[in-house]
Amino acid sequence: MVGPSAARPALDGAGAVPPAGGSPQLFLMFQMVDNLLPIGGFSHSQGLESALQSGTVRKGDEAGLASFLKMLVQNVAYQSGPLVHGAAQALARPHRVSASGRGGGMQGRGAEEGGQARASVEGRTVGVARAVELDNVAHVLLAGVPTARNASLAMGRNLLRLARESFAGEGDFHADALKELSEASRSRTPALRGHFSVVFGAVCAAGGLGAHEALQMFLFSAARDALSAATRLNVVGPLAAQRVLRGLSADLEALSAEAAALPACAAGAASPLAGLLQASHPQLCSRLFQS
Question: How far apart (Å, rounded) are the C-alpha atoms in residues 181 and 89?
């Protein structure tokens, strides 16, 4: 008879290597892509409402909706993806020096820790300045589509406020850079307007997420929000919407890799149709969404 202290067989999955970053970062990923995140994404259709009323997308046409979403996500990837990736890289946490690399003795360790602290502050200042530059790029790119520009600003400012008031001080979330960005956005002549792509990358970096993870999450959120709008516009039902989202997974992965390889100066719209549909939204006779 086997006693209670005898070794038991390991459960399936036991001993598996946890995801990079650990649990705090994993749960931040869940929260950032949650459609209940109160930043206003549910109120924007990203041009889908215009597409439906113009006949570009038709109710019940699942294949047509999937084709439209591929175009939409491609446009988001090339226009906003390099800015998300750039902001997350610019504000990434500095690497910690390993114990083996520290100087011997109390004095040596104290001097090294002080140098690390100064380097961290200097790096954060440079990162914030770079985020402001990327924010200016986003504003220029969206200047021709006021509805998309206003949606980006509203969601970005909402996310920055949410992160500071709800995430800061929780677990391993570092909000120093977000505090500087928030102060820059509230000055009399704001240096930071607060576009969604840049703020999203900054918040992911503050939570310890990598730039590529931030970009993947951003593209997934864009597709998810558009499909949420599709179900409320009765283009497709919720089950069909999930099929479409699942079918986009390979495209999202490929586009995130392509966008990550682009410098911010190469960011730009990939689909004129997407911009035209978004720009025509204010002229619709009846509207359920803000954009």
Answer: 15
Q: In the predicted model, what is the mean pLDDT of residues 81-94?
A: 90
Q: Tokens representing 71? A: 């175009």
pLDDT band at 178 (very low <50, low <70, confident <90, very high): confident
Mean pLDDT of 281-286: 84
83 and 195 Cβ atoms separated by less than 8 Å? yes
Residue 289 lies in a domain: no
- Is there a domain that residue 288 lies in? no
User: Considering the domain boundaries, does residue 207 fall inside one?
Assistant: yes
Round to whole Å and give the CA distance between 269 and 16. Answer: 41
Min mean pLDDT across 69-78, 85-94, 118-127, 281-290 is at 118-127
Q: pTM of the prediction?
A: 0.81
Contact 49, 178 (CB under 8 A): no
Q: Helix or strand or coil: residue 182?
A: helix
Gap between the Cα atoms of 122 and 212, Å rounded: 24
What is the average pLDDT score of the chain?
81
| Domain with 135 in it | 44-94+104-283
User: Which CATH number covers residue 78?
Assistant: 1.10.4190.10
Q: Which residues contact 195 (CB under 8 A, 6 or more apart)?
A: 83, 135, 138, 139, 142, 152, 153, 156
- Amino acid at residue number 97: V
Q: In a 10 Å sphere around its CB, with 0-12 CB exposed, 13-18 middle and 19+ buried, how is residue 276 labelled?
A: middle
Q: Are 48 and 68 in contact (CB under 8 A)?
A: yes
Count of alpha carbons within 13 angstroms of residue 202, beta-carbon side: 34
Q: Would you say residue 24 lies in a domain?
A: no
* Paired tokens of 183: 């102060």
Number of domain units in the chain: 1
- Who wins on pLDDT, 12 or 186? 186
Residue of higher predicted confidence among 99 and 43: 43
